[in-house]
Amino acid sequence: MQTALPVQRKATRPRADALRNRERIVTAAREMFVEHGPDVPLDEIARRAGVGNATVYRNFPDRDALVREVVCSVMDRTTAAAEAALAETGDAFEALERFVHATADERISALCPMIQSTFDQHHPDLEASRLRCEQLVVALMDRAKAAGQLRPDVGVGDVMIAIAQLSRPPAGTPCFRVDDFVHRHLQLFLDGLRAPARSALPGTALTMEDLRKA
Question: What does the record list as coiled-coil region(s) (predicted)?
Fold first, then answer.
């Protein structure tokens, strides 16, 4: 007597409309987290995304899960910007400039506090995204240094903290109004990164690990 083998079932793939709904939720959440902080009501996020509350909770069982997805999606987009810059074969410093400006548009200044206070910053998903992004930015900066275009006394932490600080809206200023000066100030910062350096920097080059320990 032969034992019947279990029937192998194919894993069901999410429907296209379900994926679109998930993307709309993440996009709406990112916008509202930037505008109002991580405590914005989930029903407001659902309303902006054009879906029902049940759809939000079906995709994200709690607020932490949604915040983590938003942060990871921003990290992934930042990583994609670094990959695109690194793939360029032209001027190494100009590629770094394009990455910095693209990253500022992701509003990481608004999302950084969420990483520290809203959920476990050592979550595997976040750690993987962060490590990949850091490696690419280091490679991007090393290439500009090797070309003699980037001053040698700056580290990836210096660049990332400058992006976060310079793209942060002043107290009482709506996020959408910072676009008038963010890229102007970032360019002033970038011009200060060019080699040869005109002055010695105090302290030592910052790494991302230095920032995490601060």
Answer: none
State which residues form the domain around 76: 67-213
CA atoms of 109 and 164, how far apart (whole Å): 4
56, two tokens: 């939000």
Let me know whether 54 and 74 are in one domain.
no
Phi then psi for residue 67, to 5 deg, are -60, -45
**30 residue type, one letter:** R
- Tens digit of each residue's pLDDT (9 = 90 or more) over 105-121: 887 766 665 555 555 66
Q: Are 140 and 95 in contact (CB under 8 A)?
A: yes
User: Rounded to whole angstroms, how far apart are CA atoms 1 and 108?
Assistant: 64
Whether residues 53 and 157 share a domain: the answer is no
- pTM of the entire structure? 0.79
Distance CA 197, CA 150 (A): 9
Distances in Å between the Cα of 211 and the Cα atoms of 31, 66, 79 are 25, 25, 19
**Can you give the three-state secondary structure of 8-72, one letter per residue?**
CCCCCCCCHHHHHHHHHHHHHHHHHHHHHCCCCCHHHHHHHHCCCHHHHHHHCCCHHHHHHHHHH
Report which secondary-structure segment, H or E, holds 198.
none
Distance separating alpha carbons of residues 65 and 155, to the nearest angstrom: 32
Q: 129 near 77, Cβ under 8 Å?
A: no
Q: What is the pLDDT of residue 11?
A: 47
- Quick one: tokens of 108? 């990481």
CB 32 within 8 A of CB 49: no
